[in-house]
Design brief:
The chain is 62% helix and 5% strand. By secondary structure, it is mainly α. Among the domains are: 66 residues, Winged helix-like DNA-binding domain superfamily/Winged helix DNA-binding domain (Arc Repressor Mutant, subunit A); 138 residues, Rossmann fold (3-Layer(aba) Sandwich), CATH 3.40.50; 98 residues; 70 residues, no CATH class. Strands 5-6-7-4-8 form a five-stranded parallel beta sheet, sandwiched between helices. Strands 1-3-2 form a three-stranded antiparallel beta sheet. Strands 9-11-10 form a three-stranded antiparallel beta sheet. The C terminus is likely disordered.
Length: 934
């Protein structure tokens, strides 16, 4: 059985085992485990307790020799885990520290923090348990800050409080860890597998309402992640193996017989009360008599920090005497005696009841309505929720009153936003429900959010608005859940879904976007009426969202077909362009380049009818990109250059971002860089690829960065054998894709990394990654560049001595290239096949040379000097080995002379070396001439 144990406790156990049952003094243990540090005896005792707990029924084997040290009896041997530790994902991505930047003062918690710091070094799972309002979250965050250096500053805070049910716990954890996800449900096991062997402190905050899910996540991390630890906060323990439950005590309160002012102020509950009151009323000074009353309040509130803050807020406005009188009456009513005999949640309820009853009616109403915003709210939101009862100025004053009474607090993460503490929010929602006002207030909240999103229309949010809209996601989720509930408003839900699509797109939340759209579309019926355009918009948007998830190509095409038909019925040219653009993407990504070019031409025809020059820019780019992959490089260069020329003359007004925030300049430059490479302009190609990446990074456009890396920087570095640049670019792409969770791109990174590994000579790993990526892409119908990847797979197999398998892969690549008109790499695939055949039977030159002749012809027809050079060099190498050096030079020399001298390519190096050999008769060998290859 495997038992989780902290690193310090394990070192103690290891030292005791090594003593073979002999006494190990406390001094020796401390010197061995904490070399060079000053450590108190109680710290050692904490870790000894952890060892005993880990020993379970055998705890008596560890004996304390009073005043001296410890002995460990029994027979011990080394072994292995009975379950393998999950391997880390193949990416060196550290988890960033996402703790709040604003630090809250913790009065009276220093001793607790010191003790818990030791506990965290002894146990890998620690749960802070206590009543609501006891301060578990603040304590956990400060504790995490203190120990962050022990985890290489990798601390992931998972806020579980906003969740409605346990189903979202795993997804919330994955988001906090910035892990890539797909449409399949995230599980505790997949989270643990992604963490792997990294150093990490996972903080699960407010677990009580999702306790089972939190326990499963923590248990998986402990079991499979040897260098990770879990810190949880909850009203009850997680009840998992190896867990240390730390009961968080209330703040210290004065004894009833204590009267000395100095002694009273030393008690942390009194200190907190005075500090909070003074913060709200600068001139507040507590004299001896007033301190006695404050001490009484602290005792009645059991030293619970949140309750004390409520009381201090009221004392700042009403005075200590009034608070004490009301508090006495309230507690007599609710407790009926000793408070320590009541469940802890009732203590918080009593505090909240008391605070709520002290509010003016307008304050009560606003507090309850603001509870409808789980992700916090702005001043405009508060005004909108009360516009039927209060003026703008009155709402502002009421909100500030609530903030002054600590019922509403500024959100430290976002400027200009407020939020309710979760316990306060839950209490206020219950008040709404009891009053029968939930539907009314939920409708008002959804309407406000629709109003916020409405200015977007069909466009993407400006970069400055991304953060602002992103803060509303939790509120939008709540509004949509209500809208599509039995008592909700379907029409409002559909409008809100359609309006928020650009935000999901901007935030790269494609899975969430497609899921929400599907839910909205499911509520359309023959009887339902709404703006006809909304349905068309939703289908088109779903098509684009599916393009960037692991969804199938068929699902995407189905959604697009419906969206396009609806747009045509409406005679909406702009919406038709969006649908056709996404349909072009479908064809391109499914490897159907002839169809993609036809769709691009259809797009351009409609674009010219809109008389919007920006649409023409997109149309030229679509045609140019499809033409490039089709194999007509000069035509592709012309259309891509036209697209960029139009943009350079100021004709791109931003509308060409196509509702999905795609930077047309970056996309066109990336594709033109590929074309320039194939045309032999290596220097220009590399320069343009770097330029488009820098432009995307400068604009902070994450999706554009991904396109620049995938379409230009990575493949150009790979094709020119610049392995250092390729490694850096692929690592950047992998980090971006993983961090942003763009599932569709995962198979791309696998294939690109596989190509790199094969070029680096790591054939086995490269073959495995290519097969994995190709399998995922083929299953979902995404075949773009698959012939190229299959060619690399064949080269890897050939290098591994598996010629038969290599031949099968290149045959599939050739078939796919010809069927889907993926002709741009056809010449190179013919070269790869020729080399495989020659390796299988070196004596049979004829079959290989026929293929190379065909490849040379294809490359010349496509005006593709890059592949012409590679094919010519491969054929020349065969000739040189069969004593036809002059023919070899005549074949490769002219094409190599077209490349700049400073360019360093393997084929150019071969050609230059061949040219330096002594010249011989052109009639050597069998007398054949290269011209017969045309």
């Amino acid at each position: 059985m495997t038992v989780p144990i902290g690193s310090r406790a394990f070192e103690i156990l290891e030292t005791l085992v090594g003593s073979a049952g002999l006494l190990v003094t406390k001094h020796d243990l401390i010197r061995s485990v904490w070399a060079g540090l000053t450590v108190e005896d109680n710290t050692l005792q904490v870790h000894i307790s952890a060892v005993r707990k880990a020993l379970g029924e055998d705890r008596n084997l560890l004996k304390t020799i009073s005043g001296r040290g410890y002995t460990l009896s029994g027979d011990w041997r080394s072994g292995h885990l009975d379950h393998p530790v999950a391997a880390p994902v193949p990416v060196d991505m550290p988890f960033s520290n996402n703790l709040p930047s604003v630090r809250a003062s913790l009065i009276g918690r220093e001793d607790c923090l010191s003790e818990l710091t030791d506990v965290l070094s002894a146990y890998r799972a620690t749960t802070l348990v206590g009543a609501g309002g006891i301060g578990k979250t603040k304590l956990a965050i400060e504790l995490a800050r203190r120990v962050a250096s022990s985890f290489n500053d990798s601390v992931a805070l998972v806020e579980l409080a906003p969740l409605q049910d346990a189903a979202g716990a795993a997804s919330a954890t994955a988001r906090a860890l910035k892990l890539a996800s797909n449409e399949r449900q995230v599980t505790p096991a997949s989270i643990a597998q992604a963490i792997g062997t990294r150093r990490l402190l996972l903080v699960l905050d407010n677990c009580e309402h999702v306790i089972e899910a939190a326990a499963q996540i923590a248990s998986a991390v402990l079991r499979y992640c040897p260098n990770a630890a879990v810190l949880a906060t909850s009203r009850e323990g997680l009840r998992i193996e190896g867990e240390y439950i730390a009961a968080i005590p209330p703040l210290t309160v004065p004894r009833a017989d204590a009267h000395d002012a100095e002694l009273l102020l030393r008690e942390s509950a009194v200190e907190l009360f005075v500090a909070r009151t003074r913060a709200l009323r600068a001139g507040f000074v507590a004299g001896a008599a007033e301190l006695q009353k404050i001490a009484a309040i602290c005792r009645r509130l059991d030293g619970i920090p949140l309750a004390l803050e409520f009381a201090a807020a009221r004392a700042a406005n009403l005075g200590v005497d009034t608070v004490l009188l009301r508090l006495d009456k309230r507690f007599e009513l609710l407790n009926g005696g000793r408070r320590d005999q009541l469940p802890r949640h009732q203590t918080l309820r009593a505090t909240l009841d008391w605070s709520y009853d002290l509010l003016a009616p307008a304050e009560q109403s606003l507090l309850c309505r603001l509870a409808m915003f789980p992700a916090g709210f702005t001043l405009d939101a508060a005004i909108a929720m009360m516009e039927d009862t209060l003026s703008r100025s009155d709402v502002i004053e009421t909100l500030f009153n609530l903030a002054g009474k600590s019922l509403v607090s500024l959100d430290p993460s976002f400027e200009g936003r407020w939020r309710l503490l979760e316990s306060t929010r839950a209490y206020a929602l219950e008040k709404l429900e009891n009053a029968g006002l939930v539907n009314e207030v939920a409708r008002r909240q959804a309407g406000f959010l629709r109003h916020v999103i409405a200015p977007l229309g069909d466009s993407s949010p400006a970069p400055d608005d991304i953060s602002r809209f992103g803060q509303e996601i939790g509120n939008v989720h709540a509004a949509l859940d209500w809208a599509f509930s039995p008592n909700g408003d379907t029409a409002l839900g559909i409008e809100l879904t359609a309006g928020f699509v650009p935000v999901w797109m901007q935030l790269l939340s494609f899975v969430e976007c497609s899921t929400r759209i599907e839910r909205a579309l499911a509520h359309f019926s023959a009887e339902f009426t709404c703006v006809p355009k909304l349905k068309a918009q939703l289908y088109v948007a779903m098509g684009f969202a599916l393009l960037n998830t692991t969804g199938s190509a068929d699902r995407m095409k189905g959604a697009l077909s419906i969206g396009l038909a609806l747009a045509e019925e409406l005679s909406d040219l702009e919406l038709q362009l969006k649908a056709i653009w996404t349909l072009w993407s479908y064809n391109l990504n499914s490897g159907q380049y002839a169809e993609a070019r036809e769709v691009g031409e259809r797009y351009l025809e409609i674009a010219l009818r809109t008389e919007n020059p920006a649409n023409e820019i997109v149309g030229r780019r679509l045609i140019g990109a499809a033409t490039h992959f089709f194999g007509a490089q000069e035509d592709a260069r012309r259309d891509l250059t036209l697209s960029l020329d139009h943009a350079a003359h100021g004709l791109d007004d931003g509308a060409s971002q196509m509702w999905f925030l795609l930077n047309q300049s970056v996309l066109a430059k990336a594709m033109l860089a590929r074309v320039l490479l194939l045309q032999g302009k290596i220097g220009q190609s590399r320069s343009l690829a770097a330029e488009c990446l820098q432009e995307a990074q400068r604009e902070k456009d994450k999706l554009a960065v991904a396109y620049a890396l995938r379409n230009a920087v990575c493949p150009i570095a790979l094709m020119t054998r610049d392995l250092v640049a390729a490694d850096q670019a692929i690592s950047s792409l992998l980090e971006l894709v993983t961090r942003e969770g763009i599932a569709f791109w995962t198979s791309w990174t696998s294939c690109l990394k596989g190509q790199l590994l094969i070029q680096q000579g790591k054939h086995g790993d490269g073959i495995a990654l290519l097969r994995s990526g190709l399998k995922a892409r083929t299953e979902n119908g995404w075949l773009m560049r698959n012939p190229e990847f299959l060619g690399s797979l064949a080269e890897g197999l050939l290098a591994s001595g598996e010629a038969a398998k290599a031949l099968a892969e290149v045959e599939e690549a050739l078939s796919m290239a010809r069927q889907g008109s993926q002709l741009w790499c056809l010449a190179d695939l013919l070269r790869i096949k020729a080399e495989i055949l020659l390796a299988d039977d070196p004596s049979d030159l004829s079959r290989a040379e026929v293929l190379l002749a065909e490849g040379l012809s294809v490359a010349r027809d496509q005006q593709c000097r890059f592949y012409e050079l590679n094919v010519a060099a491969a054929w020349a190498a065969i000739m040189a080995k069969s004593n036809r050096q002059q023919l070899a030079l005549d074949l490769v020399g002219p094409v190599s002379a077209l490349f700049d001298q400073e360019i360093d390519l393997p084929a150019l190096a071969f050609a230059r070396a061949l040219a330096e050999m002594p010249r011989i008769s052109s009639h050597d060998g069998d007398g054949s001439a290269p011209c017969t290859c045309h």
